[in-house]
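Protein modeling request. Please complete all fields; requests missing the sequence field cannot be processed.
Requester role: graduate student
Desired output: 3D structure, token encoding
Chains: 1
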Amino acid sequence: MYEPSDISTLSLDDQFMILLHKKIMNKTGSAKRRAKKYYKDQYKKTGIIPKPLLLAGQGIMEGRKCSGRPRALSCDVKNRFIDMVKASCDMNDPNFIYITRKARVITNYHKFLEEEFQKKISIYALRRLVREKNLYLYLQQPDFDESRVDKGYFNPEKIFDLVQVDGCKFQYFKIKDESEKWCKPQVIEFYDTGSRYMFVLDFYFSETSHNAVDLFTRFLLDVPFPKKRIRLRPDRAKGFLNLKRPIHELNIKYSMPDGFYMEPDFSGVRSPKHKVHLESSHRSLHNFEIRIIKKFEDKHAIILDGRESGERETFPLPETTQAQYTIPIGQLRNRNIPSPIP
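Delivered output (342 residues):
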């Protein structure tokens, strides 16, 4: 990836457009249009780049925490709204009236809250709260317990439009970790949806923040990126959630108007279909374990039912049987083993 040049050598108009892009690149819809118009009007009126844009160029994004403004929703309003939503889909809950599925919309709860608290409440803040607390599970809960069949259809994606990230733990063998404990290794993968190409894949013992950032760094260094918007969709494991900050820093440094921009597009809570292509590849990954066992057949193995590796004649191992190999994870990485994904 190229090193961004010093924009101070550019004309004032060009500096303004680049800084404006960095300020509004994470916004969407009407919020983005309003902010763009506001800063353009300020620049046209004064001829000076507004200070928030200069701060955005340094990676400092203004917000309520920075400016000292109070929170949009108080704790009482938040708790009452959550109670309303949860109680409105349960006929036996006395905390709020039961509301049928089609009428369970944020606008209705907004009116009830303003009447109850006798003050103006931001409906936009309520919508953000619904996303943060995953209240869609309650808002979309059907009135009756009916089995709903989802259509098996997924929109096609162009190359680099959507990169899926996930981890998968092995089932059939264990190796020793740094503390000499037997652990199942697992892989973390970066997978392009459009081309079905596995960008990077490596072995770890857990999906920690350190391991996620390590493989994310390799992904950035090994892959040439096009000048377009790239959606990165990791799982919602804690280690992957911490990728938000390096992605933001990456955009602050390298994103340009009509150029490269990496959009964090995390999968939903308990929504494996949001990264179904990578989830389905895990079946091939577990078959790939047998190829690893074959590759390390020269190593001493302990089978959990007491048999030694020399007594094992057939592959694959039964699901109730696991092998333990006295090899470090570095040796597992360095062996020349073909990729599990065809």
